[in-house]
Design a protein that fits this description.
Length: 267
């Protein structure tokens, strides 16, 4: 286990892969931790220096104080500074992808390329997030599990892979309520349309074809909003794309991240 004091508090991270290879940083989704990337980890760590971390209030990272998207992006920069990593190719899932948009817009010299997975520049409505926050505060994380898992995975995965569903139910239920609520508030208050207009690095938006949270139309909107961006829709996947369809995710993301990136001066 590796921990470092970075920015707001103590952060859990995992860094592995060939020394000198490009660094790929993974940002996890709401209610998950670094293990959301387990199914795709092996081929990435063969090719890249891979940095996984738990965002504040999730996994083994401290909760910190009130959260917004700017604070979450600055947490990533603080972690990179603490580990002496000058720049990364960033892969974000859901809120992790929202953080990636703010990161690439606000810190352009730190992001070489961007993979935005099952995300959008706005997710849901304030009413949806206020209801989710109230449910978490009133009933604890166990009150959310069934509804959230129904959106995270397709009916076929619920039927055919019950052990995966149970594992993710455990992951979600063990997320601290305070950390989950703070992240919900950050999503509720985020509007990243202006950020997208500022992103200059190569960007790939990936959507699950059956995602009800961030449907393919959100990936198309990111593609259209970010200069030069591309989009891919993966069949047989809902919201947690890398866990549900790892092979298709790998086939989309790795060639994109292996491609040469333009020099900063050329962006």
């Amino acid at each position: 286990m590796s921990f470092v004091r970075a920015g707001f508090g103590n952060v859990y991270y995992d860094l592995a892969g060939p020394t000198g290879a490009p660094v790929v940083a993974f940002g996890n989704s709401l209610g998950t931790n670094v293990h959301v990337w387990d199914a795709v980890y092996a081929p990435f760590v063969e090719r890249f220096r891979v940095l996984r971390f738990d965002m504040r209030g999730h996994g083994l990272t401290e909760i910190g104080t009130a959260t917004d998207m700017s604070a979450l992006a600055s947490d990533v920069v603080a972690l990179l500074d603490a580990l002496e990593i000058p720049r990364v190719r960033y892969v974000g899932l859901s809120i992790g992808g929202m953080i990636g948009q703010r990161l690439a817009a606000a810190y352009p010299t730190r992001v070489e390329a961007l993979v935005l997975t099952a995300t959008a520049n706005r997710i849901g409505t304030p009413a949806v997030w206020n209801d989710r926050i109230a449910a978490a505060r009133d009933g604890g994380m166990s009150a959310l599990v069934d509804g959230v898992l129904a959106r995270w995975f397709t009916p076929e995965t619920h039927r055919d892979r019950p052990e995966l569903i149970r594992g993710y139910a455990t992951m979600l239920s063990r997320t601290p309520v305070e950390g989950y609520v703070a992240a919900c508030e950050a999503i509720r208050d985020a509007d990243l349309v202006a950020d997208d207009a500022r992103i200059a690095c190569p960007t790939l938006a990936i959507a699950g074809a059956q995602d009800l949270v961030t449907p393919p139309g959100d990936a198309y909107a990111l593609r259209d909003a970010i200069r030069g961006a591309r989009s891919v829709v993966i069949d047989g996947a809902a919201h947690i794309v890398p866990a549900e369809q790892p092979a298709a995710f790998i086939d989309a993301a790795i060639p994109f991240l292996e491609a040469p990136v333009p020099a900063l001066e050329a962006r």
